[in-house]
């Protein structure tokens, strides 16, 4: 039972709210107004879930570092799960206290459960990271994790929405705690974090979240497609099967998160790195790099090439894409996340897509200089135009229908150099 100080101000100003959060178990607390411009792309979703929201309370809960740093993933995941549960308990205690004072308040989970019916779109109710950054709880590092100025990235984030208008002096940090040391680049087993700041979302997601969502779908379909147990074992080792069951029974388990493990940023963390960098590398970074393990990659991806080149001692397993589209909108939304910039080298082309059917939509996709840009509508002169019934296009992408048959029946029509469609496919492997 959490004990609260009943003498707190009944007006619940910033100081009182902070005391409530700290008493509930938070290690640091900040606030941001729902009207803050930093939340412009989050506001609609927040208000859809909690329409009474006036202020968001952002808080952090520290994780124990050495479990996260261990090459034994069971130890790291134990800490992730315990801290996640603790974070949810802190949020619930804050809400309970506010409700007792007559205020409306609610909280989303730190991780799971999520709104699964929205897959493969946005499943989470509130994005904790932009709220935390706006509330001054930290800044994003090159590894895309929030770094707290004191605790580093060894934190989990929680958010509480409440109906209070709170005067506060919280603001984004002026300085980013990220050292740009690139240790996360060196340790990442899939090459998802590039030295120039590029982030290959699909590479990270395919491996680290193998036993979550899209990866689980791939597992289920492997079972469905197997002729018998022997055929199934050609695709899955006994260890992989047990690992998947462990995630189902205990909770989804991450395969890596090495970027968190090696990050030396934060006042409480940086001492060992500054005192003896060589020892920091030898004792924390190198064991993760040297670990013999299976790395999950999409076939014909930049990650597959990277692992083979950088970590030849790690086993590569090629799996299906975890971002299979369910409709035209999800197809277009996924493209920036699954784009493979190295596979696009030398390609400079403009594509016009015109979709008909239940979800009519037009979009322009430009691939040039190893970058992809997507714009609504048909813009500029195309090198290849694709006009397609939306359903037929999605069935083709999901390998449920034949492209030649769709072309013959004119459910998919091409205008321009058809070789550019193959070039397009190389940039977005499935």
From TrEMBL:
PROSITE patterns: 4FE4S_FER_1 (PS00198), 4FE4S_FER_2 (PS51379). InterPro entries: 4Fe4S_Fe-S-bd (IPR017896), 4Fe4S_Fe_S_CS (IPR017900), SCP2_sterol-bd_dom (IPR003033), SCP2_sterol-bd_dom_sf (IPR036527). The keyword Metal-binding applies. Keywords: Iron, Iron-sulfur, Metal-binding. The keyword tRNA processing does not apply. Residues 169-198 form the 4Fe-4S ferredoxin-type domain. GO terms for molecular function: iron-sulfur cluster binding; metal ion binding. PANTHER family: IRON-SULFUR CLUSTER-BINDING PROTEIN, IRON-SULFUR CLUSTER-BINDING PROTEIN-RELATED. This is 4Fe-4S ferredoxin-type domain-containing protein. The lineage of its organism: Bacteria, Pseudomonadati, Pseudomonadota, Alphaproteobacteria, Hyphomicrobiales.
């Amino acid at each position: 039972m959490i004990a609260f100080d009943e003498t707190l101000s009944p007006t619940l100003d910033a100081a009182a709210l902070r005391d409530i959060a700290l008493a509930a178990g938070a290690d640091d607390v900040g606030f941001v107004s729902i009207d803050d411009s930093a939340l412009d792309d989050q506001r609609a979703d927040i208000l859809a879930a909690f329409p009474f929201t006036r202020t968001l309370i952002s808080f952090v809960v520290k994780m124990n570092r050495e479990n996260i740093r261990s090459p034994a993933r069971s130890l790291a995941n134990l800490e992730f799960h315990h801290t996640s549960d603790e974070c949810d308990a802190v949020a619930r205690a804050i809400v309970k206290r506010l409700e007792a004072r007559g205020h409306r308040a609610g909280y989303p989970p730190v991780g799971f459960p999520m709104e699964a019916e929205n897959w493969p779109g946005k499943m989470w109710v509130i994005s904790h990271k932009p709220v935390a950054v706006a509330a001054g709880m930290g800044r994003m590092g090159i590894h895309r994790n929030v770094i707290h100025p004191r605790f580093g990235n060894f934190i989990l984030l929680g958010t509480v929405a409440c109906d209070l208008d709170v005067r506060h002096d919280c603001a984004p940090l002026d300085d980013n705690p990220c050292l740009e040391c690139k240790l996360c680049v060196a340790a990442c087993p899939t090459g998802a974090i590039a030295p120039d700041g590029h982030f290959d979302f699909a590479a990270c997601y395919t491996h680290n979240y193998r036993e979550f969502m899209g990866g689980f779908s791939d597992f289920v379909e492997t079972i469905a497609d197997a002729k018998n147990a022997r055929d199934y074992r050609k695709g899955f080792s006994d260890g992989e099967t047990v690992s998947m069951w462990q995630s189902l029974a205990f909770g989804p388990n991450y395969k890596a998160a090495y970027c968190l493990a090696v990050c030396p940023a934060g006042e409480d963390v940086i001492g060992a790195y500054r005192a003896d960098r060589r020892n920091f590398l030898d004792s924390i970074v190198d064991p993760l790099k040297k670990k013999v393990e299976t790395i999950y990659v999409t076939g014909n991806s930049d990650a597959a090439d990277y692992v083979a080149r950088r970590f030849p001692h790690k086993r590569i397993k090629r799996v299906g894409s975890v971002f299979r589209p369910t409709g035209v909108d999800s197809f277009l939304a996924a493209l920036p996340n699954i784009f493979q910039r190295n596979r696009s080298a030398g390609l400079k082309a403009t594509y016009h897509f015109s979709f008909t059917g239940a979800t009519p939509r037009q979009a322009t996709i430009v691939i040039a200089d190893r970058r992809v840009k997507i714009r609504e509508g048909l813009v500029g002169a195309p090198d290849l135009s694709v006009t397609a019934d939306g359903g037929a296009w999605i069935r083709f992408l999901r390998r449920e229908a034949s492209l030649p048959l769709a072309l013959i029946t004119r459910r998919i029509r091409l205008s321009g150099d058809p070789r550019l469609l193959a070039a397009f496919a190389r940039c977005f492997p499935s």
